[in-house]
Amino acid sequence: LVYVPETHTRNGDHRLQLAVLRALPKPGLALGVEWFQARFQPALDDFVAGRIDEAEMLERTQYFSRWGFDYRLYRPIILYAREHHIPIIALNASRELTDAIRDRGIAALQRPLSDELPDSYDLEDEAYDRKLREVFARHRRKGARFDRFREVQLTWDESMAQAVSRYLAADPQRRMLVLAGRGHIGGRHGIPNRVTRRTGLRGVIVAGYGEDQPPREQADFLVLEPDRPLPPAGLIGVLLDLADGRITVKGFTPGSAGRAAGLLPGDRILAVDGRPTGSFARFKLELLERRPGDTVALTVQRERDGRTLRKRVTVTLKGPSDGGGASPHRR
Questions:
Q1: Which residue segments constitute the domains of the chain, with CATH numbers given?
Q2: Which helix (H) or strand (E) holds 81?
């Protein structure tokens, strides 16, 4: 059992995660990740088995709306797991569950959401509570309650620990590499101690080290791994309406490349460089590795004077500082 924590936006951490995954013996190995919620496990199973492609996996797991971090950081790990037939185990609690806890508290939950709660909670970890109070004080929002914040954090950590424990308990030959945020792994107060409570397994934490990273006691091994940030993404600079499975332009960012190229609000994007999009995930994948200065040809459907037209709009992509954006509905 090995844990490699991440700062979600730090490429160096994800490079280390991939390096550890490559180094581990493959028989019996599974990859447990925070990035997907447990209710979407069937989609991950279908993806690793080759029954669906990458875009359908991302669509079915709702990756871009539920996790949303730059998929370029995670893609090499996910594709490596598929290539080597390594099961990807979705560890995270559902957004529906954690939102309900944040709004109403655990005690007020009713079925079916209450059925998603982990089987037990450790409420006696004082160091864990101190850490949560520090985080809550730094990021406190108006009207927020610490008791609800604590319940959500505990539910995340206990749910992920339970998923790890159950997977390993099903077969003594199973092993797992767990990838999750530093707050869930560092110092063992999140997932690791809760897995130990359930299974007796301590596991090993391997973490990247940097001046902005936690001190030595947060991990068993520290690795000097430079961050090497990703290159800027090439962006169209449009706000999108994704209702009814369509990809429709509803607005533009300042300095938008798409608006300069002739896109209009209401345009429905049908294809990128002649390849049908079909879904937001396919649209994102088509643009994923594009850089500022690259050109893309968008096929759009436009309604004008009662007629439905198809047009080809060629866009020269810009960087984030030049009129792009980063939200799931901005590209």
A1: 2-99+103-224 (3.40.50.11550), 238-322 (2.30.42.10)
A2: helix 71-83
Cα Rg of the chain (Å, integer)? 22
Phi, psi of 247, rounded to the nearest 5 degrees: -115, 100
Among candidates 116, 111, 110, which has minimal Cα distance to 97? 116
Q: Note down pLDDT in tens along the chain; length 331 residues.
A: 999 999 999 999 999 999 999 999 999 999 999 999 999 999 999 999 999 999 999 999 999 999 999 999 999 999 999 999 999 999 999 999 999 999 999 999 999 999 999 999 999 999 999 999 998 998 878 888 999 999 999 999 999 999 999 999 999 999 999 999 999 998 898 999 999 999 999 999 999 986 665 555 789 999 987 889 999 999 999 999 998 889 999 999 999 999 999 999 999 999 999 999 989 999 999 999 999 999 999 999 999 888 999 999 999 999 997 755 434 344 4
Rounded Cα distance, 209 and 120, in Å: 33
Chain centroid to CA 173 = 28
Q: Give 37's strand partners.
A: 92
The Cα–Cα gap between 16 and 243 comes to: 38
**Cα(133)–Cα(272) distance, rounded to whole angstroms?**
47
Q: Which residues on adjacent β-strands are paired with residue 252? A: 238
Residue 324's alpha-carbon distances to 18, 253, 270, 319, in angstroms, are: 29, 6, 20, 6
pTM of the entire predicted model:
0.93
Say if residues 206 and 221 touch (Cβ distance below 8 Å).
yes
- For residues 268 and 246, is the Cβ–Cβ distance under 8 A? yes
Give dist(CA 143, CA 150) in Å, integer. Answer: 15
Cα–Cα separations (whole angstroms), residue 292 to 230, 254, 295: 13, 16, 9
d(CA 196, CA 188): 10
